[in-house]
UniProtKB/TrEMBL annotation:
This is Probable nitronate monooxygenase. Signal peptide: none annotated. Pfam families: NMO. Keywords: Flavoprotein, FMN, Monooxygenase, Oxidoreductase. PANTHER family: 2-NITROPROPANE DIOXYGENASE, 2-NITROPROPANE DIOXYGENASE-LIKE PROTEIN.
Amino acid sequence: MSVKLNNPLFEKLGMKYPIIQGGMAWAGTGHLAGAVSEAGGLGIIGTGYWKADKVREEIRRARQVTDKPFGVNVMLLSRHIREVFDVIIEEGVQVVATGAGDPSPFIEELHSHGILVIPVVPSVGLAKMMEKKGVDAVVAEGMESGGHIGMLTTMTLVPQVVDALNIPVIAAGGIADGRGVAAAFMLGASGVQMGTRFLASAESEVHENFKNAVVKAKDIDTLVTGELLGNRARVLKTKMSKNFVKQERIEITKPKPDADAIEELENGSLRRAVLDGDKENGAFMAGQISGMIHEIKPVAEILEDVWSQAEDLLK
Ligand code: TUI
């Protein structure tokens, strides 16, 4: 028996699996996103704090790998989002995902260009607001995820969002195998998003140190930075991230840094992890499920293995 995708959105996008790749800043390159779409999932380019030219370049790199639809994630804390949306529209991207904020001001414009809009939401309140504004689906992301996170777990967030909405809900956070996918479907989700699993893939372009760190990580090897200073983000435990959390307790009394300093801190430390594998100064954003990832596999194999295990369980 094959489980129906039960999601017209995914059928419209010609996907073989109800699996989306999370739009990871720096790590979600055109090459990775293209590979995920080509293999039957939906790849998402993560633009983080990138400027328009870099986004255009990565969109074109995705097109070298696939003719299938893929998405671009716009990180709404960035100051470059207007120019990034312009590039997305000019380049004819079919799906926009958003993270770290409220995309309301852009939804109508994106829809007028035929672009599907799928915001990532950390709460029922924002999910309901997004449905009202006419988005095509939401990703309900639990705090098991890597990177910028909300307060609720996937187990608690997903069924509450499913109950509150009539549009498709895609579950994210802590999913890296077929058991996670089957569990998400049991909670009422009609698709899943995985980030960390694709970080440790053959097509992922993150530094080898980063992939190895995910493979080596145990269950308790992540921590949350920004708990005190804002912008909570889950990263792998390193000397630097442990120290950062300690430093926050001291700096909470100091004036908040300006936007340039915040961008350099967040964008710079992630860039150092992804491009340089810098264990001293890099922020290795990864989810709690890192502890369950033991090998680097090609994207097509990940999708096939995860979905066939999920199908067996869901029968
Ligand atoms: O966006 C993510 N994950 C990210 S973005 C990113 S780049 C960055 N780096 C360092 C610090 C901050 C960002 C790395 N990882 N996931 C989706 C997500 N969205 N998680 C939480 C949210 C969210 C939070 C608040 C979405 C909406 C929201 O709304 C608040 C509002 O503006 O109303």
